[in-house]
Amino acid sequence: MKAEIICVGTELLLGDIVNTNAYVIARALKEIGIDVYYHTVVGDNFARIKEVFLSALKRSDIIITTGGLGPTRDDITKDAIAEALNLKMIINEEALIKIEEFFKRVNREFTKNNLRQALIPETSQIIPNEIGLAPGVLLEKDDKIVIMLPGPPFEMEPMLYNYCIPYLQKKSGAIIFSRVLKFYGIGESSLEEKLIDLIDSQSNPTIAPYAKMGEVTIRITAKAKNKEEAIQMIIPIEEEIKRRVGNYIYAFDDQKIEDVVAKMLIEKGITIAIAESCTGGLISHKLTNVPGISKSLERAVVSYSNKSKIELLEVNPETIEKTGAVSEKTAEEMAMGIRINAKCDIGLSITGIAGPDGGTLEKPVGLVYIGYSDKNNTFSKKFLFKGKRQEIKERAANAALQLLREKLLEF
Where are the CATH 3.90.950.20 domain residues in the chain? Predict the structure, then answer.
């Protein structure tokens, strides 16, 4: 079954409101095995809503709209769709009673325009709105399913999950289940090359590589009658990918690098202290988002200035004078200093130039040194990241956690 999402609202076209509804609906449909081929945004214009809907009707089995169900003159979604389908608008008594009772309860006058919220196309049924007044609409005509939902997400989402998805799942008879493998230390093109025969021969399950900030992922997606069957379809593909490139895999599904590292620290009983400069506490922030990390994270210091590096971490002033605050040696002394002062198993440090200013030909924006120290070993690693200031900080923090993960594998 092919679905299409139409979001109605001039405010969406103008960028005044972010269109989160399409994202939520598409993800919900994916989980029950319904493919979404088109997203459309259209303003509060009768002719254009009708035109967009008629186009959707020709190419999609399911059309879900959001917005334009309220009481005002620009709430015209139902009217436009009813005309497109040659259906009359009729009063739904259940919806009308709810609206009238609401106005009595709040002691407000029931104005004539509120009657619009109780009007629905003939042959359709309402979808209860347990939060707002405007009900949704569900109708089937000529083997097509049309669902109209209100625009406000806090109204739309409960209606979608409580009523629409169960209804559509019965129609679909399938679910889509995905397994995500996360990689570090290998580029998207290199990963694809190693798996190209699997990708080229895919049908069900499908294999989709994609990259985002600081990591590459593979999504294995199966369409099946139920989750258990989908998992059994995915397992052989996942095992083959692990056999080929498993040494680059660090996490699965919704796991983040900080979740993986925190779990390793806690399970191994290892304590750590962190000294951050260019990331301004971002590494510590990521780790402290994980419950239970207090068992391992002893302290964290944002040593942004040279003075703080010297006073708090016992970095040798001559090191900064000769090599600079952003250098291999400074990173190493920061890591060793925080470890010794905190009496921890591991010291982790980071220093760099996040930009947009401060870079030179010798030390450009994006240059970062990550320092590591334990009782047997102290070293630093050089990185050069691209992007804006926040992107560099994010990439640097993730790289530091990845380096830490690699060292924890040795414990």
Answer: 257-408
Pairing of β 175-183 and β 249-252:
antiparallel
Q: Rounded CA gap, 205 and 188, in Å?
A: 20
Please return the burial class of 103, using the count of CB atoms within 10 Å of its CB with bins 0-12, 13-18 and 19+: middle
The reported pLDDT for the residue numbered 161 is: 95
3-state DSSP assignment of residue 370:
strand
DSSP structure string for 284-326:
HHHHHTSTTGGGTEEEEEE--SHHHHHHHH---HHHHHHH-SS
Residue 368 · residue 383 · CB < 8 Å: yes
Query: 2-172 in CATH: which number?
Result: 3.40.980.10
Angle at 56 between CA 53 and CA 62, to 5 degrees: 105
Q: What is the pLDDT of residue 211?
A: 82
Task: Give me 96's structure tokens.
Answer: 């009308």
The pLDDT of residue 202 is 85
> Which CATH architecture is the domain 257-408 placed in?
Alpha-Beta Complex (3.90)
- Residue ranges in the chain whose pLDDT is less than 70: none
* Cα Rg of the chain (Å, integer): 28
Q: How many CB atoms lie within 10 A of CB 176?
A: 21
Please give the CATH topology (third level) of the domain spanning 176-252.
Alpha-Beta Plaits (3.30.70)
Q: Tokens representing 108?
A: 């407000």
CA 365 → CA 59, 275, 336, 380, distances in Å?
A: 49, 20, 25, 18
**Start-end ranges of CATH 3.40.980.10 in the chain?**
2-172
